[in-house]
């Protein structure tokens, strides 16, 4: 029976294929020259007198180990190219499953402690509290210090400062602007500040059709030809958790609470929502398929959010084309629109007894940017002084005194000090002129 089993194994797999398995037994096979040779083979192919051909579970386990070993080597090879060929690689780390795998791989290669690869983190001010705590944990565990970036003009960790400048509800008012302010702009600023020429990230083909064709290297969507390294591009989510379990890799604590992927607390939920699937003590509890099915990893992300066109939101904007087009200048820097430099000056204009037009704006707001040319054109021939006042830095004042809940807000200041809001989405030069002239009729 054993001889027959050996012959079957040789026919099915060939002698060379058999030796590729982890050996646990041996059989005698015949070489091309007719000389007997002792060939070792896997426990999965081990034969017994009960006519069992092979141990299916053992074969599956060995196959997975072989696959994971290959994926590890492939990922490390790409990381070696990213770090040593480019010389200034940066890893934006979101601390999700794939990212902790990359963190561990970089550690194994010695790139974290020696600083050959820098780690950056974007704090959106809306993360789970556990996320930044976990960052401090892995910094200590691996011996590195991440560079943290957040919304422009706000100190790291200053949520109150963010709320004062951008508004605590910006994500409700305009999710695209929120993504730009809290994710895309600090992300791009981080890459530029760290002077990177190769960005390492954890995107995979398994994450959905938007990413189904990515390769291990590609051009990043940022000016200057920056390279993007996707070391785990060909991994499944199951591969990442297999790796985490194999090496007992530190991972985000919310995996143990039912979250397959972790983003902002405001729009991230467990999958399934009852939290019945968990990853605890390096093992899955419950049915793991809701996490591991194709494109399921990010099902719990961006929940309840939609793009401007009404489509379901699946990306925050960091990895899409055009992400480099952040805004780093003021509006109406030249021309007839006059600047109001302080709240005291704004109060003086309101109480001056003279008519005026005041646009309350934020330079990062796409709608303010969109009306820049037309408002400047209107100001050139306006019948009253035209002003701009940057409201994102003085939210309390503009809410109380200038009718402002969102940007832009255009107001007509009447001679009696009352402030009337322009309540229309039409923002051409002619529209603003018509708004101004409506007050001439009312006071005639």
From TrEMBL:
Alphabetized UniProt keyword annotations: Oxidoreductase, Signal
GO molecular function, one term: phosphoadenylyl-sulfate reductase (thioredoxin) activity
Enzyme Commission (EC) number: 1.8.4.8
Enzyme class: oxidoreductase
UniProt xrefs under InterPro entries: PAPS_reduct_dom, Rossmann-like_a/b/a_fold, Thioredoxin-like_sf, Thioredoxin_domain
One cellular component (GO) term of this entry: cytoplasm
Organism domain of life: Eukaryota
Signal peptide: 1-20
Thioredoxin domain boundaries: 318-441
BP terms from Gene Ontology: sulfate assimilation, phosphoadenylyl sulfate reduction by phosphoadenylyl-sulfate reductase (thioredoxin)
Protein name (record): Phosphoadenosine phosphosulfate reductase
Protein species of origin: Skeletonema marinoi
